[in-house]
Amino acid sequence: MNKIALIAATVVTAVAATSVAASAGSINRTQDRQLDRIEQGRKSGSITWTEGLKLRAEQKRIANRKAQLNSKGYLTKSDRRELNSMQRDASYNITKERHDTKRRPTWLPRVGK
Fold first, then answer.
1. Average pLDDT in the 40-69 region?
2. 10 Å Cβ neighbour count for 1?
3. How far apart are the first and last CA of the chain?
4. Element at 42 (helix H, strand E)
5. How confident is the model at residue 5 (pLDDT cuts 50, 70, 90)?
6. Is 90 in contact with 55 (CB distance < 8 Å)?
7. Is the separation of the CB atoms in 7 and 57 below 8 Å?
8. Residue 27 near residue 66 (C-beta atoms within 8 A)
9. Residues 91, 104, 64: CA angle, nearest 5 degrees
């Protein structure tokens, strides 16, 4: 009977650890996708140089906040909720900047990162 309880406890712990790691991974994947979207907008000209600076600064603020929250070694549910909210706002800002009327003229070379 004790072996069954031990196995059950091990399985529950493994599943919980996997879900926490998966959620941290999804935060990283979202951040990577957002940085790719900014770079694609810069290459196409739909995001200007100054807009790119602002959007990358926002991504850096999210990364810094994530590092601050993760300093204890894990992210709580409220930490993940806060980061997801920040990432949703950043995604909205990326979309807004990509679809506004400001564009880099095609005859101008792309400058900066």
1. 94
2. 5
3. 62
4. helix 2-44
5. low
6. yes
7. no
8. yes
9. 35
